[in-house]
Amino acid sequence: MKARLFMYLFIFSVLLIIFQYVNSKDILDKYEEDIKTFKTKIAEQEKTIEALEEQNFELNYFNIERNDNALDYFAAQGYNTDKLISAITEGLYNMNDYEGEDHPIVPFVSMTGSKLLINKVRILNHRWIVANFTDGEYWGEIFVTYEIDENNNLKYKLVEYFMYPKIS
């Protein structure tokens, strides 16, 4: 009787071990498959990130913050470039606070009754700025040069401008 009991326990144990082995193998195979899938996704995303970084670098090529020659030009004159860049940008944005219909630098008059406002400013180098403007319905862009006079005042000069035609 004891021998049969031990034999049944032994067979039960062997079956339990076989079940555990098969179950664990399935789980490990699934984890390995998941790992391969995630490694593939990670590799694809790393390629995407690399392409986006390259695109970002190209898009920021004409930007004073990446233009060492322009920054060195201002540094050689003794200017704090961070403060100067923000002052140049703020100078254009401050022109949005004007009285009447004529914007101080934008050569158009609003056709909607609201004020023309400069929205976005990109300082290209130590002399040039590109900015866009709108009255909420019509959009345009301006090309501006700037310089700092002997009294450390910023002087802006409109060089080129255009307004996009309204598409109905």
Concise structural overview:
The chain is an alpha+beta fold and 168 residues long.
Describe the structure.
This protein has 168 residues and is an alpha+beta fold. The protein has 2 domains: 1-59; 64-163, no CATH class. 48% of the residues lie in helices and 20% in strands. The protein contains 3 helices and 4 strands. It has helices at residues 2-59, 68-76, 81-94, and strands at residues 117-123, 128-134, 139-148, 154-163. A 4-stranded antiparallel β-sheet has the order 1-2-3-4, with helices on one face. Strand 3 (139-148) and strand 4 form a beta hairpin. The longest helix is centred in the N-terminal third of the chain and has 58 residues, at 2-59. The radius of gyration is 34 Å and the shape is elongated. The model has no long low-confidence stretch (mean pLDDT 91).
